[in-house]
Write the structure tokens for this entry.
Amino acid sequence: MSATTVETGRLPVAKRSTLAKEFNDGRAMIGRNLIAYKRVPQLLVFSTIQPVIFVLMFTYVFGGAIKNSLPPGMNYVDYLMPGIFVQTVVFGSLAAGVGLATDLKSGLLERFASLPVTRSSVLVGRTGADATRNIFVVILMFIVGTIVGFRVHTNVFGLLASMALVVYFGYALSWIFATLGLAVKDPETAQAAAFPLLAPLVFASVAFVPATSMPGWLQPWANNQPVSSVVLATRALVNGGPTAHYVFWALFWCTVVLVIFVPLGVRTYRRAI
Amino acid sequence: MPTTAVRVSGLTKRFGEVQALAGIDFEIPEGTIFGLLGPNGAGKTTAVRILATVHKPDAGSAEVLGYDVVKDPNEVRMRIGLAGQYAAVDPNLTGRENLRLMGRLAQVEPSYIPPRADELLRSFDLVDAGDRPVRTYSGGMRRRLDVAASLVQKPPVLFLDEPTTGLDLQSRQALWNTIRTLVHEGTTVILTTQYLEEADQLADDLVVIDHGKIIAQGTAGELKRNLGGTVIELTMGEDTDVDRAVSLVGAVTGSEPERQGALLRMPSPDGSHLLTQMLRRLDDEGVQPTAVALREPSLDDVFLALTGHAAEEEQASENGQGNGKPKGRRNRRAS
């Protein structure tokens, strides 16, 4: 790799094309955020231990009660696990907001703003690191699910497609919380503000229980909201049955979120520093 | 003729209700140390952030090594280093990883980065801590790493926003030496500080900023000379009526001295003569100072004379700089 001199004294600059520069910056930022998960494993607790407890609790405590409202012949754990995959990445997406608010408060974002870094790389680094983490967490949840009796009824491609969809959904949600974190500028506030947003999405959904057990006024929401759409698509991909319709709506929601929150996140980032 | 490293003209910036900068101008020759001096909220940090392309000015212009900070921010970013007010390093990375990250983001040719990181760890006395996560560092170590991180690319122009805040005396002096070495090698350093001693020690030229405006400009020596020859300090005993002493001294000098507890202080172009008169008058009235001093004026005195308040006292307009972010970690030196 050749280097060019900018100014006397300054260390030589790596010669990179715009694309190579974006790649360098994004990778550096993703790497930095991933190291945090390695150094501070507690950060992973929320996105791993908690879903494991959910799996055990729903399977062994509520499972018996919920089983009666399931389609006949369906195992509750097979019904539950796709919901758990999605729930895991939904709560995990909070990390983007908390992380960016922390970086803002610590002055790191100010420092990055004074460096010749691709502007979007801070956000790409954050959301990209969380997507990488989600791949790991979803695989872990699959293993936990398998231990308690979860079985894929389609094939390995269905499984991989479902995991990819779940990770994509988590990535889209990361942009919502990235925007939120940069707007509130405080890690604790970002965390506190996120839960009221997430609870109706995760719990008033078909992730853990079928909508038929809910009051009539809640059912349209529970059947069609984004988390449910992704859960239904994931379920179809691993449990079988009609798939295309559900996958379409799941991808639709992910794309809507990205189309709105990528530009909004970048704008909020520019204003936050 | 030395070339100009930084040129600032008519710079203004407002954050909501707060006029952080109300039109400032200065030029900094290459290879010098320039001091921006002023209390909290004076606008120093805003000026630095604009020069470092973090904020955009509302009006006016600023150039760094000939590049406009608004039109060519990336050219500017290739040539500067910034150590802001916070120890802006990643607590989860080790010291070495932080330095390497900054080198990478500063687009330094990869083969130069690891040796440069090692070199900085050595010169900032962080070799033993180099492979420990920064969250285990003390405040002083973090601050040193922060300054080191601004130097990875060997920037021709370096901005240090209150770099020695929170450092002990030894680290402070070590950093001063590092700054002097950098300047000797041709770096231009722009330094903001509330510590007048620091500006006095380091800065070739300085501006004093208060409420977003430059209220004085020159070398430390010039500023002191403008103030007059000497400063008289009288310390009153515990049982003395200090108010009475103030009025007695005021009657001799024609203006009230500045009072800090039991300490009376006044600039004087003709120190020894005035001091004799003062002591005679106080003695006539039976007032005995416990300590008497006649000294060269410090920048503290200059600051006080210019602004009517001491440099390090807490300002009501604390949120004047930055955009309302908390100014937590700043510890002030007790005066």
Remarks:
- Residues 156-184 of chain A form the longest helix (29 residues).
- Residues 18-272 of chain A form one domain.
